[in-house]
Amino acid sequence: IQIVARGLLDVLRDFSNNEEDFLTVMEIVVRLAEDTEPTVRTELMEQIPPIAVFLQESRSDFPVVLSEYLTPIVVRYLTDPNNQVRKSSQEVLLILLEQDLISQHDIENKVCPVLLALSAPDGDDEYKAEAANLICKLVSVLSKSTVERLLLPRFCELCGDGKFFQVRKVCATNFGDICHAVGQEATEKFLIPKFFELCSDSVWGMRKACAECFMAVSYSASPEVRRAQLSPLFIKLISDPCRWVSVGGLAVLVASCSSGNTFSRVVSSDGLKADSVEDSALAGAELTRLSPATSASLKLPAGSDLPIHSLPGPGSSTCPEGPEDVFNNFIYWRTPLPDISKDLELLLSEAGPQEEGCSRPETVQHSCVARSEIQKVLDSLQEHLMNDPDVQAQVQVLSAALRATQLDSVIEPEHEGAEGRNEGSVSAPSPAPDSPTALSASSAQKEPSEPRILRSTDIIPQPLLDQYVSMTDPARAQTVDIDIAKHCAYSLPGVALTLGRQNWHCLRDTYETLASDVQWKVRRTLAFSIHELAVILGDQLTAADLVPVFNGFLKDLDEVRIGILKHLYDFLKLLHEDKRREYLYQLQEFVVTNNSRNWRFRYELAEQLILILELYNPNDVHDYLMHIALKLCADKVSEVRWISFKLVVAILQKFSSHSESALGLSFISELIIRFRHCTKWVGRQAFAFICQAVADEECIPVEQFVEHLLPGLLSLASDPVPNVRVLLAKALRQTLLEKAYLRNAGNPHLQVVEETVLALQSDRDPDVSFFATLEPKCRGTADV
């Protein structure tokens, strides 16, 4: 019976033209669906998708046939007691839905009722989890009204299922898709409360799933909900005590920075609202210059003419547009913030004498001054607190900064970084003094550098960038996740592309920190993308900031150097000619590896050298690259030698195309000395390979080949090793004799070549005689 089920498609192809025969076959399908053997039912399920496709192409009444015969079988098997049959039916249902073969009427009246019954609160846990997964997949093929009417209530019930955590896990994983399907109003009314419950679930896997889909959920919420509800919730997730949850949230934050999307509206450091307008932003910018201690714990975004909510972004099209997005009283009609610039100037003038006269340590001095200054600004904003949400956001930030300065006065400096993270400071956490980041920070204090402030906050909000930069703190690898730096390194080219080269100063220190990370995987990630970053930054920034990192990677582990090597040509071609020549001598260092068995490293070097030849003049190629090619041609691994023969051909073509016949003859002499007269048979075999490749590509003039290479090649006919004579027979019979200049009747070298071939045809070794006799048209078959 299983064989019968397997052959149903062929039977339908034979009898579908006759209506009676077709109906008979479909009745057989129905009877097979009732078979008691699970293997028969499983086999039948596997045949339904191709049968459905065939019927769609061959029958005009396909919707009726599918609805009456096939769909009921698939739906019935969703409740089959056999696990394998159920899994097969679920896969088939998803295939039919993806191909849009099942009508909306059948989905609503046949599929949905079964799924709702399986996902009932008193249902079996295993069936419930499977039904929940199918419900989440169905929302993409149903209309918004149908989802709200049939599936949304049950989905909300499943989100709160307390019996089986796998059901809640399925809901959390697909939460963003459900929000997108039902729209903003239903999301805020029904789904956001359930999302809060899932984000507070006792199972860390649930909270991790929520963190990973947070961006999708935020797209379906209004700006007010994002600011008031989702922003604190996301901060809670990235501060979760479980490292897997916090890492999941940080990965989402990294992705939002690298793509520059509108997720930046949702979260900013320590609840900082990204929709601050020009007045508040300028006031915050002035505050950051009050003292070094204040700057270390408070960074506000630079000014912008419009709120972030009104600025378009790459992801703005996916966000539902409601009336509040078109006109918003908060955005367009608000009481202006007070002008506190004069007060700030007064505070700055008063701060100087206090710092000079204070005998306490420098850090404590700055902390005292910062507390008094921030407290005064807070007092000046209190009268506007109830009228403007923007002021409320700024007050929250200033309060966080005030708490940070209070911690500075009672906590040892080496604990500032960790406490700053626990308090949720607005800017990047202060690194431990022993870390590379701390060293770079201290050097930055000694040598004034451009502050890490964006020149335009309509790309990425400043606090979001600060949060991204803080992930490179080596302390994060110890307390959060060891791979967090790798995530940052992987997305850094995307962040740089989003910010543009005009904002590279914001990432320069971060890039240097990652380039000196103790984990080789982080440095390897940067090495594989340094050429892409060079394209983004341009030649001047590349020479100033990337070339030193590139030089460090050249001396790194092989696992890091391979990233440089794979894109060596792409990076070198972006440098100026004088800078590029500095690497000529260093290229030969790639021949030496930490592990001599790492032959793929040398293979990659040969491939890159073929491309790099165009970047240097013939004299440089002769003095530096030619010697590397000769070493690679003598490599122990045959794969490396074969690709190196192509490199030799490319070098000879370089000399010939630039009319450097003297350099070409010098190279040919080296080839003859090193390989034709080599004491090892592998070297002499390599000479035969090289001669065949040179003749095949015609990379040197015929006169040079006949005069310098052909005599040495023909002399291999008396070589004692059969493998060498086999290669000679192939070169003469399949390549040289096919060239027009040797087939000419008056060519004096034709007779010598033909005599050598005749001698090889009578060779005592059968392989040599076979290839010397083989016709060129059979070459491909013989090689196989």
Automatic annotation (TrEMBL):
Repeat positions for HEAT: 151-190
Chain ranges of the Putative WW-binding domain: 326-356
Region feature (Disordered): 412-456
Gene3D superfamilies for this protein: Leucine-rich Repeat Variant (1.25.10.10)
Domain of life: Eukaryota
GO terms for MF: protein phosphatase regulator activity
Keyword Metal-binding: no
Biased composition (Basic and acidic residues): 412-422
Comp. bias regions, Low complexity: 425-444
Name of the molecule in the record: Putative WW-binding domain-containing protein
Organism: Neovison vison (American mink)
Lineage per the UniProt record: Eukaryota, Metazoa, Chordata, Craniata, Vertebrata
